[in-house]
UniProtKB/TrEMBL annotation:
Organism phylogeny: Eukaryota, Fungi, Fungi incertae sedis, Mucoromycota, Mortierellomycotina
A Pfam family per the record: Iso_dh
Single GO biological process annotation from the record: lysine biosynthetic process
The UniProt record lists the keyword Membrane: no
Name of this protein: Homoisocitrate dehydrogenase
PROSITE patterns the record matches: IDH_IMDH (PS00470)
Gene that this polypeptide is encoded by: LYS12
Organism for this UniProt entry: Modicella reniformis
Similarity field: Belongs to the isocitrate and isopropylmalate dehydrogenases family.
Length: 375
């Protein structure tokens, strides 16, 4: 009997095995990704909880400088063949052109068809932050990020630089469907919270961001396609829909962030809006994201590689830790993700252990240990 029981438990453990690829990449990525791993390993163990295995994988500008490739083929092969998800740290993409180099995270999104970047920006109840609970859905594969640029010489001998921008009906529709589906999911989750404790009281809403008053062809196609997602599917009848020009979106987001629920935007606009929104909750070091496709998810903190503080234990690990929560959430482990979110919120609410970006003196490890203790 004992032998059968052991075999049964081993079978459960095998079924719950989750292999996660860890790609620290550059700068503070090498500090915050180990912090996220520590938190995952500190989750309480139950019969149904995931059993994590981790694979270290290479990518990044520093890897390119050493080996001539930013995203090794081995990394892609092992992600596809061995992993159920991944965590990506940060990349130090240079602001000037470097021959042969392109961003590995942009390439990773394309190779794994991670077509939506899901970026929640929410305040923590019990703190002095502005009240907001906003989810930004950023289309993840197109726009100016196709990186098709060129320089020509005009008739006067002056250089003229061009950048092609791609907006397709296919990619726009997928991003729009993600936005409306997430609006329904968030509304379902909110219905389980007492009305007095909700940050969002109204119907779910999707705000479409564009600049079609100027870019009438590309942003016009984006706007029309995302609108058609709701207009042609009755299951979204309970979701409100509105629009914002990208410039007025930024203005209004800072003035009244509580007015927004789910925001969906083309790649570049979504990148800018989500970084700006991080200021409303205190720091880029708090804001997570998940690169989501139909078959794979990569958690990724919104912040960059911060080379000025790399290796000094000053980096805020919370964005990476929340990204690990998002990874679990999109893999179907909602209760484990909720535990991570609650532990992070508890540390922020208490306000005693804070990294320098939040006005404190705590180290990366101090914050990580505090979150693990709450778990």
């Amino acid at each position: 009997m004992a032998s059968l029981l052991r075999r049964g438990l081993a079978t459960v453990a095998q079924l719950n095995k989750v292999t996660i690829g860890l790609i620290p990449a550059d700068g503070i990525g090498r500090e915050v990704i180990p912090a996220a791993r520590q938190v995952l390993e500190s989750l309480p163990k139950t019969e149904s909880s995931p059993r994590f295995e981790f694979i270290h994988l290479d990518a990044g500008f520093e890897h390119f400088q050493k080996h001539g490739v930013a995203l090794p083929e081995e990394t892609l092969t092992r992600l596809r063949g061995e992993c159920q998800g991944a965590l990506f740290g940060a990349v130090s993409s240079p602001s000037h052109k470097v021959a042969g180099y392109s961003s590995p995270i942009v390439a990773l999104r394309k190779h794994l068809d991670l077509y939506a970047n899901v970026r929640p920006v929410a305040s923590v109840a019990g703190t002095d932050q502005k009240q907001l609970d906003m989810l930004i859905i950023r289309e993840n594969t197109e726009c100016l990020y196709i990186k098709q640029e060129r320089i020509e010489t005009d008739a006067k001998g002056q250089k003229v630089a061009y950048a092609d921008r791609k907006i397709s009906e296919y990619a726009s529709r997928r991003a729009g469907q993600m936005a409306f589906n997430m609006a329904l999911m968030r509304d379902k989750l909110r219905s389980q919270v007492p009305a007095s404790e909700r940050l969002w009281q109204d119907k779910p809403k999707v705000t479409i961001v564009h600049k079609s008053n100027v870019l009438s062809v590309t942003d016009g196609l984006w706007r029309e396609t995302v609108r058609s997602v709701k207009e042609t599917n009755s299951k979204y009848a309970g979701v409100d829909m509105d629009e914002q020009l990208v410039d007025s979106m930024v203005y209004r987001m800072f003035r009244e962030p509580e007015a927004f629920d789910v925001v969906v935007a083309p790649n570049l606009y979504g990148d800018i809006i989500s970084d700006g929104a991080a200021a409303l909750v205190g720091s880029l070091g708090l804001v997570p994201s998940a690169n989501v496709g139909d078959h794979f998810v990569v958690g990724e903190p919104v912040h960059g590689s911060a080379p000025d503080i790399a290796g000094q234990q000053k980096a805020n690990p919370i964005a990476a830790i929340r990204s690990a929560g998002l990874l679990l959430e999109h893999m179907g482990y909602a209760s484990e993700a909720a535990r991570i979110y609650q532990a992070v919120d508890g540390v922020l609410r208490e306000g005693q252990i804070k990294t320098p970006d939040l006005g404190g003196k705590s180290t990366t490890q101090d914050v990580t240990d505090a979150i693990c203790k709450r778990l």
